[in-house]
Known about the structure:
The structure holds two protein chains of two kinds. Helix content of chain A is 30%, strand content 29%. Chain A is of the alpha+beta class. Chain A folds into two domains: 3-64, no CATH class; 143-344, Jelly Rolls, CATH 2.60.120. In chain A, a hairpin with a 4-residue loop joins β6 (211-213) and β7 (218-229). The radius of gyration of chain A is 26 Å and the shape is globular. Mean pLDDT of chain A is 73; it is low at 52-81 and 86-144. Chain B is built from nine helices and no strands. Chain B has helices at 8-16, 18-28, 32-48, 59-77, 87-92, 103-116, 119-130, 135-142, 146-176. Chains A and B meet through α1, α2, α3, α4 and α6 of A and α1, α2, α3, α5 and α6 of B.
Amino acid sequence: MYEELDCLTSKSLDEIATPADIERLEELIKMSSSMRKRYALLVTQESLLHWETGEVTDFVEDSKSDKKIINFPIFASAAAAIVALLSAWGLSKQFLQDTNSSQIALDNVESNKLAGKTVIAQKGNASDPTAENFPLPFTTEVEVLPAALNKSVVFSAIELLESEKRFDDGAIISVEDNFVVWDRTDHLSVPAENGILPLEGAGMIKLSGMVVNVDAQTAEVQETLQVVDVRHLPPESASTIDAEICLNKGATAYPQTTEFELSVEVLKGLEGEDKFSLGSSTNSLIADADQETWENLTSSFVVPEGADFLVVSLTARIEGPESLLPNPSGNYADSFRVNLSTVVH
Amino acid sequence: MEENTIPFEYSHKLTAIQRSLYAYILSLLPNRSDAEDILQETNLILCKKAKEYKADGHFQGWAFRIARYQIMAHMTKSRRSKIHFSNELVDAMAEEDFDSTNLNITQKALQICYDLLPKHMQLIARLRFKEEKTLRDISSLVNRPLGSVSATLHRIRQNLVNCVQQKTPGVEAEMDA
């Protein structure tokens, strides 16, 4: 019912709406009071998300990191208003000359002490990103094994590689000169099916069924394709990993937009201990609806110094109401290649 | 000195409506930078007019009316340079839809719903809402096409608004208890 309104409101809030979009949005808003209420809800939510420099995101991430945090929406709001009040007072010379603090000025100091926040109402303040508090998972900031990875599969592969076992029921382990590869692609291989022919040879990778999150309206599957043990690469060497894969998705009776993501994650950690991410590279594409064509996706990454393991994984994802529809035709990959080039200085 | 003092009661009311006032301005002027400017201007006028306000009057209605004049003046000034809604929409938008009384409940429900977002959505939400990155910046940071980022943000907002509507009665009951 509100799909078009929601979409146009989102475009308008992201400042990418065209004049025609704005005109249509206005038509929809004027159409009924329920449309107006929905629009007001979306915009109010937007202002809450931005206001107080993203208090909602602060709350979630800080509570996860088990830090003590106290939520002071009132104080932060008070700070905003009082900055405005002070600005108004600043117009008056008498205020500037007056050395007696008023009750409001005192409140302002107290509020800011408690809230410890900057104020969005002051233009420019809110745009100052507090990157130190919010390390991005794709930078070289250190973090525990990222949630994005299929942890159990990665842990099990790393455990095997660390214990120097050379056999796994669910993967092939091959030993090269300076590194060992745990490769799962053969075990995910299927012959031609659902009208899709392998691009090379007689088999292709088939991704498992997607897991649907009904609340979030997303369907997603992630397969860990390879884990490379690079602990024994020569010191004083510089390495680059290049991964390449071709992708295809089965036909559906209705339009369904599937996004594929190829990622390389670099992990570090002592044997038997938690592994930390040293960085990652991710590239993605939206699959076309043509079963006869395969689309190519690559990902390249300079391996940071101190890397112990490289994890190559492939994700397929559908977002929106279409994610709730059945997807019996599957998602496929072929011509998967990983190249690890090392230069010894 | 006395002439420039703003009664505490007045400042308290002004403080309480800041978020809904910003939302109201943003709904008619969907550009954050412009909306913040208008909010500042409106606050200044409200401070100057403090003495004109009657204690038994409807403060939010009064503040919103002042904001509305500011918005219309801004729209007239920048009509040629920016995309805007029409003046009719400014008239049609009801102030009651931005009531500030239940915002704390909405905020609490929003926190719960944000936590329910899948990881990849939380990442994009953080970049957009917390770090205030542009879509183009987000697109290059997460290596996803611009259209895909825009679509994800649309889904994030839609998921959150639907979820907040579902969770609000529970949060309200919890806060009342």
